[in-house]
Amino acid sequence: MWTFKNFNLADWFSFYRIAAVPLLSMLLWFGERELFTWFLLISYSTDAIDGYLARKLKITSARGSQLDSIGDQLTFTMGLIGLVVFENDFIKSNIILILIAFVPYLLQMVIAFVKYGKATSFHTYLAKVSAVVQGVFILWLLFFGPVYWLFYFMIIVGLLETLEEIILIFMYDSWVADVKGFLFALKDKRRLNGTNATKQ
Q1: DSSP conformational letter for 60
Q2: Total number of domains constituting the chain
Q3: Spatial CA neighbour of 154 closest among 173, 172, 141, 171
Q4: 199 in a domain, yes or no?
Q5: The domain spanning residue 83 has which CATH number?
Q6: Quick one: CA torsion of 180, 74, 111, 3, rounded to 10 degrees?
Q7: Residues 149-194: pLDDT tens digits?
Q8: What SS3 state is found at 195?
Q9: CB under 8 Å to 198, separation ≥6 — which residues?
Q10: 63, 26 contact by CB (below 8 A)
């Protein structure tokens, strides 16, 4: 059971991303593109901060990892909604490629919920790279306009990251946090011993 007194500094940065969703939604509703983009930038920035703090202060935990994932997913979702609202022509012209990347992501989420009852929090190196590329692309598009080579790169990295996540789900019988990648998973004692990392 989570209680507020047990949350650490890194957790509160994750909480910011979650709490920012109503504000971002309001800015979308009123069509405040510039303000929305700046606050989205802040949300993306806190993602880098909470991970750094957790490692630097040695306060990593399964709970913090899960909070981080929730914050990431909500921020990414708000970014996508922002593109639909403010860059609808771009979305329409590239809908096939976007669906090619997004449908496997939804499939991965469904598989995770069926198997674990919640989203994954593997936080692989590839997931980190994908998140950075997605954030840079979305923010650049909202601030300045589309850069197509970055868009294609984002699609490729996103597909590779989703494929790795699906493979990891099938490799781990129980929910675990912080798996660096496929090669790391091959040697991970938690997988080999059949244990999990759900300790709060």
Answers
A1: -
A2: 1
A3: 141
A4: no
A5: 1.20.120
A6: 80
A7: 999 999 999 999 999 999 999 999 999 988 999 999 999 988 877 6
A8: coil
A9: 62, 174, 175, 176
A10: no
Amino acid at 105: Y
Helix (H), strand (E) at residue 64: helix 62-86
Structure tokens at 7: 């949350």
Which DSSP symbol is given to 198?
Answer: -
Token pair belonging to 160: 């590779």
For residue 159, how far is the Cα from the chain centroid?
14
Q: How far apart are the first and last CA of the chain?
A: 8
The answer as to whether 138 is a domain residue is yes
Distance CA 40, CA 139 (A): 8
The pLDDT of residue 1 is 43
How would residue 12 be classed by pLDDT, with cut points 50, 70 and 90? confident
Q: Can you read off the two tokens belonging to residue 20?
A: 């920012």
- Residues across the chain: 200
Residue at 85 is within a domain: yes
Which of 138, 151, 148 lies closest to 76 in space, CA to CA? 138
